[in-house]
Structures are given as structure tokens and as C-alpha cells.
């Protein structure tokens, strides 16, 4: 077997499963430790640098980090329902508890460098680009048709999930960096925008068009049938403040869950969600489905919509076919919200502007750089590859900002310098570490909710109250500190097997070199997605093999080792952002 190259930035990054799964690669264990220490300003800063919107994401993120969390794997024999650390809600703890002094931590933008960048749309992708480039001295102008920034964060996420004050605050941090905000200016022509002499243009206008269902009765009963995302926007801006008594929501995604819960708060006596797929196949996040059902909203799966029933143009119900039985049923209703998906729409980009589109109406982009066929125009967020989520849009923004910065310095946009990686020993004594990893058996803490009679009476009352300090500390202690790595020095090892004896997960094996290593470990390594840490150079010719999959990072191997062959070293990944660090050496001197 070849020894593991732990200098490869991706190796220990993959071991920090939560960070690896996050599109923006937020250093999750780092900020959770800071929260446990009550250092909320610093925890918020770690998030702000990485994901730009900690308060927003702490309430609304799709949480790709949590299914990856190692905690859920090691609890499989301990709990009936193993659950990850509440990573997302801990992020909110940092946002809610940071001090007023946090503003002093915000960096000052560099002197203007003479380059102008336009951002179309004020959603998370555009604002991430604006933040990254404004800090580097670019003159960034953000255009949006609405009066306030935020894009779909503001228009499509209901206030009972995301208070407006949080959006205002975090968008304000970005505009406060000297970004020019052109509110109420919807771009109607790409050619006209290109004619204004911007050095680069970023398109982050989202996927603004909701899909319709052209079924029998659609036109006749049009007054009480609405496209979900348009309806949510109308609710957000106060144009809609009531609904009919009986509401059906069509669709199984997060937008459908927002629609049904909003309708419940606007006074509907009954709200029903109908989805053509099975319950398990719904695109909505599991917790979004649970929240809707907790509020008494039934979800009917395998219901294929056939027609809108009406009498003289007045909607009376919807006819469905049950996919499993073929039976047709009619569900009475007075109003229908269609939330069956979103589409990109670029009517303002002239087809002779030099930007190529594919057969699906999406721009033809380089997947790494987000550059279009017109070299100084870039796309990101939902506008790039279709609807995703906020954290993915932020990640797109970071990458597009790097591309713009490199392009405007005459460098290839598809090249990316590797991230900065650091490994620092956490040893403070023979048996003492700078971090606490006492493995608690506590199960995941529940986030408290506002009283139902209060929460359901208003569209603006925030449902989740967030963790208090004691619960936040308790939940933070469930984190296994997966970024503190077990690093092995074979030259110091005397092969006493003390580490093997003390390992609570049977992770460590000393064995003969050779093939089929996974089958010869003390505990079979069944997760092929996670590597085996292999070191050779032992005096007996054996190799040390450690299964990274279920390691608790408890440090017992390092504490027990009589020679210090094992060390606990904190891994820090600093991803590449726009600026001197993303450029080739020849151009870095320009900002020195």
C-alpha cells in the first residue's frame, strides 16, 4: 500500500465531512467550538467570511452539512433515530448573540483599483460577488427591480421563518462596503448594460418564473389559481393578506411548504398539500415537511392532478388520480397555489448579444469559472444552472468573483490556486489538549417554538425561537471536532499497540502491507467514500492503517502513546477568494 499523502489539501478536508459537504466549505467545527466558548463575535466572523449570510442561513439553509455529519453515523447503535449535530441552528446562535462590536471586525475595502463590475439582481449570488470584489477595491454596482436587496431571500422566504431585520442587517453589511445600490432598476437589455462600459458583468437574477399547470379548468378558474413564488412575493410585500377558506397547494418542494404554512397563517380553515411523487421522494427538506405536518397540514402523496373543477368559473375543487390505485378523487377547494418548480427566464438578454444558451434556455457556462461565451459576462446562483439554494448561490458567487478578478488581471479564469491548508498541534502538555472532546451521549436538542396560537395567528411571528445559551453549549458539545486530526509519525512508533487497545471504535490496525487492506482491519471499513489513513516506515515492516470513517477524534490514541507518535493537529482550510491570493505570483505585487 502507498502511504497517505496528508499534505494533499483534499485529504483532511474530506475527513471533516460537514465542511466537505458545504458548497461554501464553511469550517463548521471551528465556529461550533467558538460558540461553546461563548465567543459569538468570532464564530459569526468565521461564518461571514465563508458563507456571507450567517443569520439568514442559520434559519433557512438546506443544511447539506448535516446529513454528512459524523455524529449521525456514530450514534447508530446508541439511538433509535441517530441525528447529526444541529449545525444550522448553532450558526443562528452566533448570529443572534454577537455583540454590537462585531461591526468593528468588518474589513475596510482596499483603495479603488479603477475597475467597474455590474451585478444584475440582488440575491445571494450577486451579493457574494459584490462583497468579495468590493473588499478588493472594485467599484461594484448592484441592480435590482425591488426597493430592497436580498432577492428571493426577501421575496420568497416567509417572515415567520426569516425576519426582515435579519435580511436588512446582513445585506447592509455588504452595501456598507461601498457597493453602489441601484434599487428599482430592473435591467431590460443586456446590450444596453454592456454599453455602459463595465469591465465585467455578473448575472445573478435567479430563476424568477414559476412553472404553471395547464390542466382543464385552468383558464376558467384563473382568479383563484396562483403561481406559488409569485404568490409568496405578494404576501411578502403585503399585497396579499388573506386567502380563501379551503386551499390546495400543488408541489413537494420547499416552496410548497412555505406556501401551505403561509396560507395557514393568512386564515385558511383547511390547507392540503398534494404531490404526485411519494412522500420520501419529495424535494422538500425533511424538517420542512415535519414543520408543515406539525402545524396540522396533511400531505397527500401519489396524487396526480388532472383538472381544476369549477362551476361557472368559480373554483370548487381539484380532481386527482391516485397513482397507486388509479382511483380518481375530487378534493374540494376555493384556492390553489401551484408550486411545482421554477424556470429560468432571460427575456432581457438579446439573443445576438454574444451569450450562448442551451436547449433548456440556460446559459452555456464553464462549470468551474461560471464564465459565459461572452468572456466578461458571468452567471451564478439559480441563473446559472437552475434552482438550488442559498448556500450554493453563495458558493457560485465566491467562484465567479475569483474568475472576474483573474480575468481582469489577464489570467486564465479556469485555473484556481489550491486552498491554504494548515495543521497545528493542539498539544498543551503530555496529556492535555487545547480543545475539549469529552464525548457526550446527549441526543440532538430540540429548537423551541413559539406557542402555536401566537405563531399561527400572524405571518410575521417567527416560529423558531433559537437555542438559549445553555442549550447551545449542550448541543455544541455533541460536535466530534472532526477538524482536529490524528496525525501519525511512524519514526516515533515502537509498535506497542497501546493505541489499538484504547481506541473505542477499533479504528487503528497494525498489519502486514498488501492488498485488500479494508478486509484486514480490526473493524471492516465499509464506507468506501472515506479514505484509509496509511503510514509505512515502521521497524517491523508493517503499516499503520486507520479507518477515518467512524473515528471520534477523541485523542485517546495520542494520550496513550508513550512516544508521542500520535498527535492531535487542527486542520484549517482557507478557501481561495478574490484578491491577490487567487492570482498568479506575477500579479500579486500589484496590491503589495
UniProtKB/TrEMBL annotation:
Keyword Iron: yes
Domain 4Fe-4S ferredoxin-type: residue ranges: 484-513, 541-571
Stored InterPro entries: 4Fe4S_Fe-S-bd, 4Fe4S_Fe_S_CS, DPD_II, FAD/NAD-bd_sf, FAD/NAD-binding_dom, Helical_ferredxn
Domain of life assignment: Bacteria
Keyword field: Iron, Iron-sulfur, Metal-binding
Protein name: NADPH-dependent glutamate synthase beta subunit-like oxidoreductase
Organism encoding this protein: Roseateles saccharophilus (Pseudomonas saccharophila)
Taxonomic classification: Bacteria, Pseudomonadati, Pseudomonadota, Betaproteobacteria, Burkholderiales
